[in-house]
Each structure stands twice: as C-alpha cells, then as structure tokens.
Write a structure and sequence with these properties.
alpha+beta, three-stranded antiparallel sheet, 2 helices, elongated
C-alpha cells in the first residue's frame, strides 16, 4: 500500500504446439483492451516472456500495474478476457493429459 500501486502477475499457459509469437500478441491485445477500459490499470501491460516450460504447456508471464488492492479484480478480468481471446484465435489452453497403456498379454503366475 505504501508504494501506491500493486502488480497483477499472470502466468498464462498455452499448448506446446502454439505459435508463441501469436499467443503473445493475442494476450497483449486482450490486456491492452483492459488497460484502455479500466481506470485501475495504471500503465501499459507488459509480457515478460516465457516463464516456465511445464509438463503440459508453456507459461507466458503478463504483468500489469494497478491501483493498490485492485490487482486481484483486474487479474480475474484479464483471465476472462484472455481466455476468450485465445479461444477466438484457436490457441489451446493446455490441460493435464495422461496416456495409460493397458497390457493384454497374460502375466505368468508363479507357485
């Protein structure tokens, strides 16, 4: 509170197959739209880049400077807008997937 601003920090996962430059542009465009509409956003949003190479996707970090105590509300709005924008652009938000192999050959019994 003493610095008179807060930071909304979002890591947005996209599938490994996604074009990262396109994903960055879509996320940035959605964040910029929120910046232009919301008085709580103090500066132009910034994408810092790839934050993590996870088990299911690539995390892109978005940072947005907000008024104090507004970062959570702004974060929720950003997530909603970014989800809609990624869907419209055909960019997949990854979800945990697991491959299970089922053996059909019999396991020998002992004894």
């Amino acid at each position: 509170m003493s610095q008179h601003w807060a930071r909304a920090l979002l890591d947005i996962d996209v599938a490994y197959e996604s074009d990262l430059e396109t994903a960055r542009r879509v996320i940035k465009d959605a964040a910029d739209a929120v910046w232009k509409e919301e008085k709580a956003v103090l500066e132009e949003p910034d994408i810092w880049g790839v934050e993590n190479l996870g088990a299911h996707g690539v995390a892109l970090r978005l940072v947005v400077k907000t008024r104090p105590s507004e970062q959570w509300r702004v974060s929720r709005l950003l997530r909603e807008r970014i989800k809609v924008a990624l869907d419209a652009a055909g960019i997949e938000i990854p979800f945990p997937q697991q491959t299970v192999w089922h053996r059909t050959d019999a396991i020998p019994q002992t004894g």
